[in-house]
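Researcher: Checking consistency across runs. Here is Putative transcriptional regulator again:
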Amino acid sequence: MDDVAAAIADPVRREILEMLRERPLPAQRIADRFSISRPAVSRHLRVLRECGLVQDTPSGRERHYRLDTSPFTQLTEWLAGFAAPGADRAGAWNRRLDALETEVHRTRRDHRRDTTATDRQENTA
């Protein structure tokens, strides 16, 4: 988790990850997006590869990089522990209100069904 957090602390590496979120890209196309040297971009890609956030595949004379989000799992679970405590309460209240709405609809439906059955009995008698 520490190496993933360290890797995403750099804005260039975050931008590379955002680029790769859409689709895999060759190293040259990644490097073209930055004003820094290609070796500098290669160092950023190496850091991302070593912590498992990107995987590279040789293709001819180039390497294609693709995003692997699985190393984010442990970090996001850890961060979720710092979410606002009210967020859980809001979710619980939303579930309760949804359950109440469902019960109101069920009661209205049952009431309509009972009223219709009573009307039929009165009309046939």
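Researcher: Does this match what you'd expect to see?
Model: One thing to look at in this run: Residues 85-124 form the longest helix (40 residues).
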